[in-house]
Fold this sequence. Notes:
Layout: H1 2-24, H2 26-31, E1 53-57, E2 67-70, E3 82-85, E4 97-101, E5 116-120, E6 134-140, E7 145-150, E8 162-166, E9 171-175, E10 193-200, E11 203-209, E12 216-220
Antiparallel strand pairs: 1-12, 2-3, 3-11, 4-5, 6-7, 8-9, 9-10, 10-11
2-acetamido-2-deoxy-beta-D-glucopyranose (NAG) binds at residues 50-52, 98, 121.
Amino acid sequence: MKCLFLLCLCLVPIVVFSSTFTFQNPIDLSSDATPxxxxxxxxxxxxxxxxxxxxxxxxxxxxxGEVYLGYSPNSAAPxxxxxxxxxxxxxxxxxxxxxxxxxMQFGSGIYEDQLLNIQFNISTVKLxxxxxxxxxxxxxxxxxxxxxxxxxxxxxxxxxxxxxxxSSLAYNLLxxxxxxxxxxxxxxxxxxxxxxxxxQNGKRRLALVNDHxxxxxxxxxx
Length: 222
Ligand SMILES: *[C@@H]1O[C@H](CO)[C@@H](O)[C@H](O)[C@H]1NC(C)=O
């Protein structure tokens, strides 16, 4: 009896995993008739993982201000490791990012809903190289949010998976913590959290939010 129970316990993950896997199987996806929707930049060109882009909020004035890599207050990191937005659209240009798909199966294109790492494309000293890769930090109790920071490795568990989804105005960024091996390549929005902005020491810090995700455009950086 006990043996049977144990056997059932062992089978559960296999059944769950295999059904999930069949559903999301990349081989099924490629024979899927539904074409993936490419993400477009401000010039209506398809995003490319070999290029970099500035992330520009759709709002203008004080609601605008591009996304940049800056020093985090209270961080022990030896390098800038905070993801911020400038306070207005008259501030300097943001820091370019590149989007690196979990799988290159779909070529160098970047598609809506595709799981991605995000990396600031800046020249930096060796010590700071890993601090170009976006990740979601621990819950910050004083701000009541998980803040976006940097420090990780492309394709590894110490970085975070994001995706770009269409919003009514432009695009939103979502953070999708699902294990890539269970939800390969594309993941369900319901398992993701929205990226928005919280105030931290007078600066606009990107963070996971329940409401008001940041609506953004992407502009190819020259
Ligand atoms: C990163 O930036 C450098 C310098 O601006 C540029 O030459 C290179 O093409 C960029 N890489 C990507 C992937 O955009």
